[in-house]
């Protein structure tokens, strides 16, 4: 435990001294909350022009957390840079010399980043909810009906950051990791997950699984936009993806020189 505490303290110092850490976290908050208000306002102003059946089935939580699909990209960048900065600068050699137990090294790095993003992710989820409700006006959702979605958004943002760290550890490159992750998450969230011919596969991707709890897909049973699993099963799928990415990162870290 003393070795883990020492490694954790070292990783927290690294995060604190990297300037990009703070602007990516701040950008996540600004994107999620700012876009939530804009999207909510757009839905409020167009509500009366919607067909009657769409008004009846309108889900204010879709408008609430849609902005997370964009804001997450900044948090993914944070996760990638937390890992890849050491490879870019060459300081990974010094880090591994100081901490030759590579499993412990990666565990400390992931734990440090997770601890750092927990509070901002929670604050972002809550602020995103209230910003969207301000924009939605009379079409807003009551907070008691959104607790699961708010908690789910918090967990989603935290896990997607850890997932990005696992991918970055495997690829050992900022450009490579971002080139793989940003199109996947951005395009998936923008609708590829609902294309009938590829939905059978894409609906189990990390962002698509996490979208269920945030009401970013259709209701269960919807043949086009629904998912064949519930919100917490979706979070379990995301957790599995995160675990596999970190395991892959550990295997690469163990079997490749710095």
Question: How would you characterize this protein structure?
Answer:
It is a single chain. The protein is mainly alpha-helical. The protein has one domain (2-255). It is built from twelve helices and no strands. Helix 5 runs parallel beside helix 8 and helix 8 packs antiparallel against helix 9 (174-189). The protein is elongated and about 65 Å long.
Layout of strands and helices, then pairs:
Blueprint: H1 2-17, H2 19-46, H3 52-56, H4 60-65, H5 68-89, H6 92-98, H7 102-136, H8 147-171, H9 174-189, H10 196-202, H11 206-211, H12 231-255
Provide keyphrases for this structure.
mainly alpha, elongated, 0% strand, 258 residues, 12 helices, single chain
Rg (C-alpha, Å): 19 Å
Summed over residues and divided by their number, the pLDDT gives a mean of 90
- Along the chain, the helix and strand elements come as HHHHHHHHHHHH
- Portion in helices: over 70%
Described by strand count, sense and barrel closure, the largest sheet is: none
- Separation, N- and C-terminal Cα atoms: 25 Å
Low-confidence sequence ranges:
none
How many β-strand stretches? 0
Structural class: mainly alpha
Shape: elongated
Give the amount of beta strand, in percent.
under 5%
Tell me briefly what this model is.
With 258 residues, this protein is an all-alpha fold. The chain has twelve helices and no strands.
């Amino acid at each position: 435990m003393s070795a883990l505490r020492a490694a954790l303290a070292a990783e927290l110092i690294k995060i604190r001294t990297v300037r990009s850490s703070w602007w990516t976290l701040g950008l996540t908050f600004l994107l999620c909350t700012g876009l939530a208000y804009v999207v909510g306002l757009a839905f409020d102003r167009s509500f009366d022009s919607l067909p009657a059946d769409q008004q009846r089935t309108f889900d204010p939580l879709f408008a609430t957390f849609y902005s997370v699909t964009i804001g997450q990209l900044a948090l993914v960048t944070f996760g990638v840079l937390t890992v890849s900065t050491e490879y870019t600068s060459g300081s990974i050699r010094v880090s591994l010399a100081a901490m030759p137990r590579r499993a412990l090294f990666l565990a400390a790095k992931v734990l440090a980043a997770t601890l750092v993003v927990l509070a901002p992710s929670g604050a972002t989820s809550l602020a995103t909810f209230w910003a969207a409700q301000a924009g939605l006006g009379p079409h807003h959702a009551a907070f008691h009906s959104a607790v699961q979605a708010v908690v789910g958004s918090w967990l989603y943002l935290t896990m997607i950051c850890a997932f990005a760290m696992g991918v970055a550890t495997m690829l050992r490159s900022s450009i490579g990791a971002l080139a793989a992750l940003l199109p996947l998450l951005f395009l998936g969230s923008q609708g590829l997950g609902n294309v009938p011919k590829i939905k059978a596969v894409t609906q189990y991707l990390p962002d698509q699984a996490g979208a269920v709890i945030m009401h970013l897909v259709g209701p269960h049973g919807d043949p086009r936009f629904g998912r064949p699993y519930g919100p917490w099963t979706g979070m379990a799928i995301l957790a599995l993806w995160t675990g596999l990415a970190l395991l892959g990162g550990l295997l690469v870290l163990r079997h490749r020189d710095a």
